[in-house]
Model the fold of this input.
Amino acid sequence: MARGIVIIPTYNEIENIEAIINAVFALPSVYHVLIVDDNSPDGTAQKVSAMQAQNADRLFLEVRTKKAGLGTAYVHGFKWALSKSYDFIFEMDADFSHNPLDLEKLLAACENGADVAIGSRYSNGVNVVNWPLSRVLLSYFASVYVRMITGMKIADATAGFKCYKRIVLEKINLDRIKFVGYAFQIEMKYRAFVLQFVIQEVPIIFTDRTKGQSKMSGGIIREAVVGVIMLRLRKIFNKL
Done:
């Protein structure tokens, strides 16, 4: 039994899915992979299902009925993983913007004292490849904004490449998670911060996708801006 499982939410990732799964399986440490697919019309789930024939003991698939947001996909995956015996639970994108090799760095951080390890684009300068300057600035200053509002000393508050020790997800009330996009990533970090878990940033290089389409939208950005204030207010009024 692997100690760690990598949760990868997908929607129309047929161009990336086989390669990203194989890259995880090629790592020195043994990881299981859970794909949470939102009923992709491009056949992503069917490709994963076909791959399960050769990887039945380490590749798992959950197909939801519709596209329902990144946050709910991860919560679905977290609950699935907690029903098993994994010690470490990872978030990772399907599009190679997160280098699978860096899973080893996140695992090492959690094995050596961190409760949450964040693959950070901004903890050691700005390490983003192939993004336009406007998007780099938006992402960077979003983290500055989050630090100002929440008090978290995290350089990359919207990062989506993470490793959690099991106990973190057991302590966070997953049924109370409110947000689905960037704000989901902020909310998970903030809830871990409020619970006084040790959060460590691990420098990575983030490379924008070369295949498939980004899921970024104006609504996701607006949710993050408003959501941070809502999180802080809930904490102040003890309703988090």
Summary: The domain at 4-236 is CATH 3.90.550.10 (Spore Coat Polysaccharide Biosynthesis Protein SpsA; Chain A). DSSP finds eight helices and nine strands in the chain. The CA atoms of residues 115 and 167 lie 8 Å apart. The first strand starts at residue 4 and ends at 10.
